[in-house]
Amino acid sequence: MSGLRGVPDDDGRRDDMLSLSSLNQSVILLPRTERERMPILVFAILMMGLFWFCSWWWLVWRLRTRHPIVYESIGSPALGWTDGTTMTWFLFSRRWRQLPDSLLVSVCWLMLLFSLTVPLLFVGLTALLFWDVPGH
Fold it and tell me: Model-level pTM?
């Protein structure tokens, strides 16, 4: 019995009712092998990277267009590798809290929180990749 309505069993029979015993097993919708979980991990990491890049680009753009004095005071950073340290320093120094731009302050708080949680998310997602799903 597969436990899913209308899904054939190993022997080809179909079950029209959801089996309660299948609910006590591992979550049916989770991929069961490392090979099935890898695309989920890659997609999640790519989405985190895309969010970070878009946030970083928006922050540089916002500072350049709305707060040119602050932008020049931190060295007119762009999206290059060396300017990443300058922007990281700006983000962690919290100089942005003094700016009269509530949207910029909100995005900086979100980026600060995200930069602190991404290592934990990465470790957690990687652990999920190699975690053995019971009942398989």
Answer: 0.63
